[in-house]
Amino acid sequence: xxxxxxxxxxxxxxxxxxxxxxxxxxxxxxxxxxxxxxxxxxxxxxxxxxxxxxxxxxxxxxxxxxxxxxxxxxxxxxxxxxxxxxxxxxxxxxxxxxxxxxxxxxxxxxxxxxxxxxxxxxxxxxxxxxxxxxxxxxxxxxxxxxxxxxxxxxxxxxxxxxxxxxxxxxxxxxxxxxxxxxxxxxxxxxxxxxxxxxxxxxxxxxxxxxxxxxxxxxxxxxxxxxxxxxxxxxxxxxxxxxxxxxxxxxxxxxxxxxxxxxxxxxxxxxxxxxxx
Length: 276
Prior knowledge:
Blueprint: H1 8-22, H2 25-28, E1 41-42, E2 62-67, H3 71-83, E3 88-94, H4 97-103, E4 113-116, H5 127-135, E5 139-144, H6 149-157, E6 162-165, H7 170-181, E7 186-187, H8 189-201, H9 208-218, H10 223-230, H11 234-250, H12 258-267
Parallel strand pairs: 1-7, 2-3, 2-4, 4-5, 5-6
């Protein structure tokens, strides 16, 4: 749904305030709290460019799906899985979530392990597609070029079992696949660092309605507009915002201004850089 646009002057002032806020140490430091999907085995720091993956043990044959718009990624994952001797029922390559749903979903006999790049086709991350795959019962490993903590955390919030950056050793992706087969999770080094920061610094547990109010308010001019959009009274909007600010203060991450709340929302994965 399109947001009502901010007036150009207000947009410029808000963007300037956000940039100033996000460069302050007290805003950049803390990250998000643990949420469902964060409890995965962390990878270790890996600067070795070698592509050797070694042989691993998987519990049972798995249907593997690679959703990425680059054929070289499809070929690379097939090769690494073969080298690791992971037992597969089949391996499918798709260019998009829509293609997978149209061509493969109805033929699957059991949930698959899906390697998915949510940033395919240079678009903003497709968290909706990721969440849809998870809702269907598949174990999804996000495999992306991005190491940005807000993207990592948002993917995990959306249901991903693990997260591996494409610049990291293929061994981490293999470990994530095996963990997904076993019903657990695994994160590459960059994602593990983001998750560790989340655990150490905490983020407030906002309700679904509080998240909706916060995001709507950040993209509209006033509380009355939020109320009309969400079909609630402006006073209710004000109460939600007061609670949100109080929750951030309770974890020592105060957000007294709209720009500060915008920065917190980005840091905690409620918004991505693509949304600004």
